[in-house]
Design a protein that fits this description.
By secondary structure, this protein is an alpha/beta fold. The chain folds into 2 domains: 192 residues, NAD(P)-binding Rossmann-like Domain (Rossmann fold, 3-Layer(aba) Sandwich), CATH 3.40.50; 195 residues, Rossmann fold. 40% of the residues lie in helices and 13% in strands. It has 15 helices and 13 strands. The chain has an 8-stranded mixed sheet with strand order 3-2-1-4-5-6-7-8, sandwiched between helices. A 5-stranded parallel sheet has the order 10-9-11-12-13, with helices on both faces. The radius of gyration is 24 Å and the shape is elongated. The chain starts with 7 loop residues before the first strand and ends with a strand. The model has no long low-confidence stretch (mean pLDDT 95).
């Protein structure tokens, strides 16, 4: 097979990874087929719309055509099949590979001879070798001859106005040199950024784990500092800004009420469990995960303490939660700390109201004015741009007693000057 615009592309999974990839490939002139089990989502895409908020994607979908289907048999037409399905963890943080296994079987059962198969889903090192390739062998395919299997770990940053799947550099790995060459050429044809071919498919799998574990560890470090500085009456935001003036050997990370999204709170567990099965204990990674997992509880306790300071019990207190999504200016709820905080506060009797302009269907209040009017305490859990309108004056007008700023986003000094109790994460 040769990579050319005559190749037909099949992408399994039309979510935050697969749909942008499909749109970018279509923009570059490929005939693209998008496969997903969610038929409602497919109807939206067929209308040239995005089922989730993403500015660059919404504009791009108006200009391109993606052929969508819930039937994996459509993959029989495709020269390149890309798997972009979720890879979650269960309640005990064990990796759940069922979506990857199901998607791999669907591709193997409908594979065009000589096709290139690329796994973009995040997996622990060894999954392509131990799980994916055996599925194709069991289906009667000969890797390196009938099928070429590669891995290109996904890189997306929802809501980012600059970086998207069309301009972020990528890394590819494969079992054979021929497959590696095909994968590299394909991504070079759709991505306006360098593509690095790495020595082995295991190394490619490890790249994504390293990226997100690096962030998780550094976030855990500043979250632990935030807890410490909170006791020492030191504003961690000012300290980080001060440290950031050093032009080398420092990279700022910021504390918050919790780590959300599908990558950072999930991916480290893939490496932890894989290493455990090989007799190694990632104690550093486990500690970082424990610290970051503790932040919703720390934030809920902060609210309880502030209410006590104004002689108010958390039981029966009307608390407004600003933000449900895990990240600013997107509607993605995956692993969002907001829900953990809500659950903790409701458990001790709080009356919770919620507002998120990007997730109105799951908000109990439909406007910022409404939630301020209904609340006597405010907990900001997501730093959406709209929440900059939460001024000290508005808080005072609505008789808000206390503010917990889970993203260190609001005007701390103005709120305190207005006589409202304020606490941020580490400030």
């Amino acid at each position: 097979m040769k990579i050319s615009k005559k190749c037909k592309i099949g992408i399994i999974g039309m979510g935050y990874v697969g749909l942008p990839l499909a749109a970018v490939a279509a923009k570059k002139g490929y005939e693209v087929y998008g496969i997903d089990t969610d038929k409602e989502k497919l109807k939206i895409i067929a209308q040239g719309k995005s089922p989730f908020k993403e500015d660059f994607l919404e504009k791009l979908l108006l200009k391109v055509k993606i052929n969508v289907s819930a039937d994996p048999k459509i993959l029989k037409k495709c020269d390149i099949c890309i798997i972009c399905v979720p890879t979650p963890v269960d309640e005990k943080y064990y990796p759940v590979l069922d979506p990857v296994i199901s998607a791999s079987k669907a591709v193997a059962q409908n594979l065009k001879k000589g096709a290139l198969v690329i796994l973009e889903s995040t997996v622990n090192p060894g999954v392509c070798e131990d799980i994916v390739r055996p599925i194709f062998v069991a289906a009667g395919h000969r890797p390196g001859r009938d099928v070429f299997i590669a891995h290109c770990p996904e890189r997306v940053n929802p809501g980012d106005p600059k970086w998207n799947v069309g301009n972020i550099p990528r890394v590819v790995g494969a079992f054979e040199e021929a497959g590696l060459k095909l994968a590299k050429e394909f991504y070079e044809s759709i991505v306006d950024a360098p593509i690095m071919a790495i020595d082995s498919i295991r190394e490619a799998e490890a790249v994504k784990i390293l990226e997100n574990s690096f962030r998780d560890i550094n976030i855990a470090f500043v979250n632990e500092l935030a807890k410490s500085f909170g006791r020492l009456n030191i504003d961690i935001v000012n300290v980080i800004k001060g440290a950031s003036t050093k032009p080398f050997s420092f990279m700022p990370h910021w504390p918050s009420c919790g780590v959300g999204g599908h990558c950072i709170p999930v991916d480290p567990y893939y490496l932890i469990e894989k290493a455990k099965s090989n007799g190694f204990d990632h104690s550093f990674l486990r500690t970082a995960r424990a610290i970051n997992n503790s932040m919703p509880e720390y934030t809920a306790e902060m609210m309880q303490d502030l209410l006590n300071d104004v002689k108010k019990s958390v039981k029966g207190a009307k608390i407004g939660i600003l933000g449900l999504s895990y990240k600013a200016n997107v509607g993605d709820l995956r692993e969002s700390p907001s829900y953990k905080i809500i659950k903790l506060l409701e458990k001790i009797g709080a009356v919770i109201h919620t507002y998120d302009p990007f997730v109105l269907d799951k908000s109990t209040a439909k406007s910022l004015a409404e939630i301020l009017k209904k609340s006597e305490a405010i907990l900001l859990a997501t730093n959406h741009r709209e929440f900059k309108k939460v001024t000290a004056e508005k808080l005072k007008q609505n008789k808000i007693l206390v503010v917990v700023d889970g993203k260190n986003f609001l005007d701390k000094e103005a709120i305190k000057k207005a006589g409202i109790l304020y606490r941020g994460i580490g400030r």
